[in-house]
Amino acid sequence: MMSQTMPRKLAAGNWKMNGTKASLAELRGLGHPQVDVLICPPSPLIAAASTLGEKDLAIGAQDCHAAPSGAHTGDIAAGMLVDAGATYVILGHSERRADHGETSADTCLKAQAALDAGLRPIICIGETLAQREAGQTLDILSDQLA
User: Looking at the predicted structure, is the pLDDT value of residue 1 above 60?
Assistant: First the structure.
């Protein structure tokens, strides 16, 4: 009988809009041989974080644009993230949905762009507090997954 290997667990930390180059010192020794550890710093820190040489530590991004290039001031393409050293990207943040009006369709397009560029997308789903209190959680999550 073939034994099935359990998938490795992933522990991911999103720095959101926090941190500086000096903060990267906090990454020393975070890798773990039995758990995949992922840190997603703000985009300006990805290249520096990816060159730290920390074993068993992956560096990811917090968002990407759906287009591979173009006149999208302030946005970053998935291929640019790969070039900077990212291997993952988190998409569909509740903050992006609330603050920027991003939809599940937008998240889907970004996920395809991430896959096309060789990134592993992590898709966030979730409801707002008001939606939870209104008993809409399962409907919201179902819609986001679809």
Answer: no
